[in-house]
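Example S7 (C-alpha cells).
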C-alpha cells in the first residue's frame, strides 16, 4: 500500500511542488485555506495519474488541524508522513510595531507546526511508524534587521523539530523527524510582506542570489521520505549556490 502523506500549505509554492512530485508514488491529503487552488492542484494530480484529496484548513486553528488528521484517517486509514509546510513571512522593522503580523506569524509558523505534530503523532506512535517533516528556513540559524519575528518563528521550528526527534528516539517509536531549512526560494511568500520598502529589499535580494525553484525543496522532501526507514535524515539546509 502506498504511504499516505499530508501536506499543509499545499496550494502554492513548496507545498504545491511537493504534492506534484510525490503524487505518483504516494496517496496525498492536501490542505490550505484556498479551496479553489486546492481543487485545481488535486485535479491536475489526478490527470497525471496520481491520487489526492484535499481539505480546506487554517493551520492556526487547532480544531481544523485535528479535523484534517481525521479526514486523512477516514479517507485512507492511516497517516505515514505529515509535512508542516504552511508559513507566512510578513517582515518589517521592530520599530513599526506590527503586532497583528507578529501574532499571525506565531499562529501559523509556530502554532501551526505544533498543531500538526499534535494531530499526527498519536496515530504514528500507536502504529510505531511515521515521519514528521517541518519546513523551516535558513533563517533558523541567523537573523537580520526586519526579519526578527520571522527568524524567531523559524528558530522555534528548529527547536521543536530537534526536541521531538529526541523524544521519539528515546521512546523507540520508530518515528522519523526531518527539518528542512531552505534559503531563498522562488515562491509567492514575499506577497505576505505588507511593508513596501521591506518587500522591495527582499525582492532585490531574491533576484541577486538567484532564488531556487520550489521543486528543489520538494526533491529534498522526497529524498527524506525515501531514506531507508531505519535512518532519519534529520536536518537539510539547501540554498542557491550564489547565496552567501
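Recovered sequence:
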Amino acid at each position: 500500500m502506498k504511504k499516505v502523506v499530508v501536506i499543509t500549505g499545499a496550494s502554492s509554492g513548496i507545498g504545491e511542488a511537493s504534492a506534484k512530485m510525490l503524487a505518483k508514488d504516494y496517496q496525498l491529503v492536501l490542505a490550505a485555506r484556498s479551496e479553489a487552488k486546492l481543487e485545481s492542484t488535486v485535479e491536475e494530480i489526478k490527470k497525471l495519474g496520481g491520487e489526492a484529496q484535499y481539505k480546506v484548513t487554517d493551520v492556526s486553528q487547532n480544531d481544523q488541524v485535528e479535523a484534517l488528521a481525521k479526514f486523512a484517517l477516514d479517507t485512507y486509514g492511516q497517516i505515514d508522513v505529515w509535512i508542516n509546510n504552511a508559513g507566512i513571512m510578513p517582515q518589517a522593522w521592530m520599530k513599526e510595531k506590527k503586532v497583528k503580523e507578529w501574532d499571525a506569524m506565531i499562529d501559523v509558523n509556530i502554532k501551526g507546526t505544533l498543531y500538526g505534530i499534535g494531530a499526527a503523532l498519536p496515530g504514528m506512535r500507536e502504529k510505531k511508524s511515521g515521519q514528521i517533516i517541518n519546513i523551516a528556513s535558513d533563517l533558523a540559524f541567523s537573523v537580520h534587521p526586519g526579519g526578527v519575528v520571522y527568524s524567531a518563528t523559524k528558530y522555534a521550528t528548529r527547536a521543536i523539530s530537534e526536541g521531538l526527534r529526541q523524544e521519539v528516539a528515546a521512546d523507540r517509536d520508530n518515528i522519523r523527524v526531518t527539518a528542512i531549512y531552505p534559503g531563498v526560494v522562488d515562491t509567492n511568500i514575499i506577497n505576505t510582506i505588507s511593508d513596501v520598502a521591506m518587500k522591495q529589499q527582499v525582492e532585490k535580494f531574491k533576484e541577486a542570489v538567484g532564488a531556487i525553484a520550489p521543486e528543489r525543496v520538494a526533491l529534498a522532501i522526497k529524498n527524506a521520505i525515501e531514506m531507508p526507514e531505519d535512518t532519519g535524515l534529520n536536518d537539510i539546509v539547501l540554498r542557491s549556490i550564489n547565496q552567501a
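Notes on this example. The domain at 4-87+98-183+213-235 is CATH 3.40.50.720 (Rossmann fold).
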